[in-house]
């Protein structure tokens, strides 16, 4: 007769610990994969655009409500007064979804599962506007905003200047919640201050709240440094 030995409680705890560590390691690996930078090469920067999607790490879904997911689109707009060679020159739009180095706006809880970094690389500095659409599922529009971190000063939703802080790459910059854009809204390439164009919702039966929240944002800048943003 064969006897099967029942594992000791210590062995069971060790096995459970190893299982948890394995899950955490897989989650960390998945997060690193999602955080890989994406480079989009554009023959003309005036037509440069890309889309990133992000979902929370697997551990965020264990035993809790369905966390938000995000679809982040960014397009480059050049001023209509810029020279033909400015808009038609080539460039590279580099984007990234950061899970570990989140930006924080005081008093605001971001809904998107990641902070998005975006920058346009050109041979010479160029005035551009980033035209952003951040679509966030499993959340509501109540109290939502857009947190921006940049290497230039800007005014926040409160009307005050964005406070100075350390940016995710270690450099000094500013971070704050963006205000709504002025009305009437100027063309994207003419904007001179970062702001939120509009906040809307669309029905989505796959969302836990029944809707997706869509943030339309514009960030005018020069092609140097990395802005970061999160809804």
Question: Top keywords for this entry?
Answer:
mainly beta, disordered N terminus, 5-stranded antiparallel beta sheet, 7-stranded antiparallel beta sheet, 2 helices
User: Which class best fits the helix and strand makeup?
Assistant: mainly beta
Question: Shape, please?
Answer: globular
Number of helices: 2
C-alpha end-to-end distance: 64 Å
Mean pLDDT, all residues? 77
Say how many strands there are.
12
What percentage of the residues does DSSP assign to strands (E)? 35-45%
The rounded Rg comes to 21 Å
Describe this structure as you would to a colleague.
- The structure is a single chain.
- The protein has 231 residues and is mostly beta strands.
- The protein has one domain (35-230).
- It contains 2 helices and 12 strands; from the N terminus they run H-E-E-E-H-E-E-E-E-E-E-E-E-E.
- Strands 1-4-5-12-7-9-8 form a 7-stranded antiparallel beta sheet, with no helix packed on it. It has a 5-stranded antiparallel beta sheet with strand order 2-3-6-11-10, with no helix packed on it.
- Strand 10 (195-203) and strand 11 (211-222) form a beta hairpin.
- The longest helix is centred in the N-terminal third of the chain and has 26 residues, at 9-34.
- The protein starts with 8 loop residues before the first helix and ends with a strand.
- The model is unreliable at 1-35 (pLDDT under 50).
Structure summarized in a few sentences:
This protein is mostly beta strands and 231 residues long. The protein has two helices and twelve strands.
Topology:
Blueprint: H1 9-34, E1 38-42, E2 49-54, E3 69-77, H2 84-88, E4 91-98, E5 115-121, E6 127-137, E7 147-150, E8 164-166, E9 172-177, E10 195-203, E11 211-222, E12 228-230
